[in-house]
Amino acid sequence: MPSSALPDSFPYLYLASQSPRRQELLQQIGVRFELLPPRADEDAEALEAERPGEAPDHYVLRVTVAKADAAHARLVASGRPAAPVLVADTTVTIDGAILGKPRDADDALAMLDRLAGREHEVLTALAVVDARGERLPPALSRSTVRFAAVSRDALVRYVDTGEPFGKAGAYAIQGRAAEFVERIDGSHSGIMGLPLFETAALLRAARVDF
Fold first, then answer.
1. Rama region for 147: left / alpha / beta (φ>0; ψ in -120 to 50; rest)
2. CA distance 151 to 117
3. Could you give the CA distance from residue 196 to residue 26 in angstroms, rounded to a whole number?
4. What is the dihedral of CA 151, 99, 39, 29, to 10 degrees?
5. Which residue in 8, 43, 57, 89 is the catalytic one?
6. By CB neighbour count within 10 A (0-12 exposed, 13-18 middle, 19+ buried), where does 15 fall?
7. Residue 89 annotated to the active site
8. What digits encode the pLDDT tens for the residues 172-183?
């Protein structure tokens, strides 16, 4: 559809994520969406590879922008109707290090050991490509989380649940790891993976109705 024929607003968007949490959060604020997951031949993990010496803020914004560009190209190639595309990426950082998704149980336990009894930051970046294919300025949500001094046995039991896998920093605040959290300063939805305040602002700028 040529840009001149685009409607003034859109009743839905494309969500370029398979995260159930992001889907639930969009539903919470009444946003309708269709999924636009990576194709089988796309190397999504390559987009998340760290660069030497890269600062966490720069990393999460760079990855999110790269994912947004890839998602828009995927939409164009699919021939599906034009609509805005939403992409988000979350990372956990402590001592300047980026804690991504754990490779295995040992890696998950090492991450959680590092977080126990200390504060860390959760960074979630958002990017929206509007229906004309123009990427809006990305947004960054920054939250501070303090974990209690959790015993190693408790951390081992948590890893054994399988919940840490596929999660940045090896935990899900909306799951059993909530018992480890003494306090947060920032956005609870951002820690979950989709800061709703920033999301709503970007979607309104992209003329999504909700």
1. beta
2. 10
3. 8
4. 70
5. 89
6. buried
7. yes
8. 999 999 999 999
SS (H, E, C) 11-73: CCEEECCCCHHHHHHHHHCCCCEEECCCCCCCCHHHHCCCCCCCCHHHHHHHHHHHHHHHHHH
- Terminal CA-CA length for the chain: 23
Q: What pTM, to 2 d.p., does this model score?
A: 0.92
Quote the CA–CA distance of 70 and 86 in Å, as a whole number.
11
Give the torsion sign (CA, 167, 172, 173, 178). negative
Which two three-digit tokens encode residue 106?
């040992």
Sign of the C-alpha dihedral computed for residues 193, 92, 50 and 141 taken in this order: positive
